[in-house]
Amino acid sequence: MALADSARGLPNGGGVSPAAGSGAAGSGAAAAGGWSTFPEIVELNVGGQVYVTRRCTVVSVRDSLLWRMFSQQQPSELPRDSKGRFFLDRDGFLFRYILDYLRDLQLVLPEHFPERSRLQREAEYFQLPDLARRLAQARAAAAAAARPAALHRDGSLCADEPPPPPLLGYLEAEPLEGGGSGAAASAPSPTASRSPSGGPLLTPSQSLDGAGGRRSGYITIGYRGSYTIGREAQADAKFRRVARITVCGKTALAKEVFGETLNESRDPDRPPERYTARYYLKFNFLEQAFDRLSEAGFRMAACSSTGTCAFAPEQGGPADDKIWTSYTEYVFCRD
Q1: Cα–Cα distance for residue pair 212/226, rounded to 1 Å
Q2: CA atoms 56, 60, 66, 69: torsion sign
Q3: Who contacts 246 (Cβ-Cβ below 8 Å, separation ≥6)?
Q4: In this predicted structure, which of 236-240, 252-256, 264-268, 297-301 has the lowest mean pLDDT?
Q5: Pairwise CA distance, residues 218 & 233, whole Å
Q6: Phi and psi based region of residue 273 (left: phi greater than 0; alpha: psi -120 to 50; beta: remaining)
Q7: Which of 127, 203, 198 is nearest to 165 (CA)?
Q8: Per residue in 275-291, pLDDT tens?
Q9: Dihedral sign of CA atoms 92, 96, 101, 107 in order
């Protein structure tokens, strides 16, 4: 027998307990059994992030995925982690906003929140249509506000549009010799203000690649590693894998380069123009990070490394072995 639409997407594929009968009476018995066997305080493991909340919160929106899981199923039917928490394989960082919405049915996001599209996808997964609709409206409003000034087909500004502000870093041109006037005299000169290298003086957030609209800036990636060297030196070297690759730099640049492979859980609400040193990557391969930076137009500008040594007996190892611990940073820049 085919499952009803309301049962799709649930763990084990159904909303009725095996002990319950069939028909309306059986469904009611399953719902009543689910309410009686779930604890009042539930612990959720969402993608590795642990949340503790009341059961009435997760079932506050009828016909949502969480409502069917925690009111139409038995606890034994839901997946759990090693510590007995109910497990959901979703984005643990974004689930905090899903839970906030379930508490009072209000959508409140940080002022600079770049993950609206991903949060909308989470809302659609948890079958919260009102939240998904609000997020879609907010995205549409943000896109309309960021839309550039309307242009005529010949490239000139429309009559009702104000002229754009002059580029930062340029000086106003001085009047031409011989009494020159007009647009040539009043327009800013691209050579009026130059850096020592001959390029125009731009603010750090402005792009030097006008065609691609890319921003210049720096990104530093670092990692800690350790290895053990025995009596035969490098022949006996035992390396450990890189545990974590950290990312330092401007938030907008880091997200542009690494996208969804960037773990922002330690600094989730950082505005795009601010700097952070708390991001790290979801993968452990330096070459993969180098490839992404190269594809984004970055080049390595500098690198440095430092290390310490300790004898292995202090760590319970062989007497002649030495344990080296190092920290290495690579600085990349894009002009």
Answers
A1: 40
A2: positive
A3: 221, 222, 223, 277, 279, 280, 281
A4: 236-240
A5: 37
A6: alpha
A7: 203
A8: 998 898 988 888 899 99
A9: negative
Q: What is the DSSP string of 231-280?
A: TTEEEEEEEPPP--EEEEEEHHHHHHHHGGGEE-TTSTT--TTSEEEEEE
Among residues 69, 64, 62, the alpha carbon closest in space to that of 88 is found at 69
Residue 200 and residue 207 in contact, taking contact as beta carbons nearer than 8 Å: no
Per the CB < 8 A criterion, the answer to whether 85 and 45 are in contact is yes
State phi, psi for 14 to the nearest 5 degrees: -155, 165
At which residue do the structure tokens 């919160």 appear? 57
Separation of alpha carbons 49 and 128, rounded Å: 21
Q: Is the pTM of this model over 0.70?
A: no
Tokens representing residue 233 in the block:
């030196």
| C-alpha distances out from residue 91 to 50, 96, 111, 126, 291, Å | 11, 9, 21, 12, 25
> Average pLDDT, stretch 48-60?
94
Residue 251's closest CA among 113, 122, 84?
Answer: 113
Evaluate whether 160 touches 132 at the Cβ level (below 8 Å): no
Question: What would the two tokens of residue 281 be?
Answer: 């990557």
Q: Please say if the pLDDT value at position 267 is more than 50.
A: yes
Q: Residue 320 corresponds to which amino acid?
A: D
For the stretch 308-316, contacts whose Cβ atoms lie closer than 8 Å and that sit 24 or more positions apart, written own/partner, are 312/228
| CA nearest neighbour of 282 among 31, 47, 5 | 47
Alpha helices in 86-159 (DSSP H): 95-104, 116-125, 129-145
229 CB-near residues (< 8 Å, 6+ apart): 236, 237, 321, 322, 324
- 42 forms beta bridges with 53
- b/e burial code for range 50-63 (CB count within 10 A of at least 16 → b): ebeeebebbbbbee
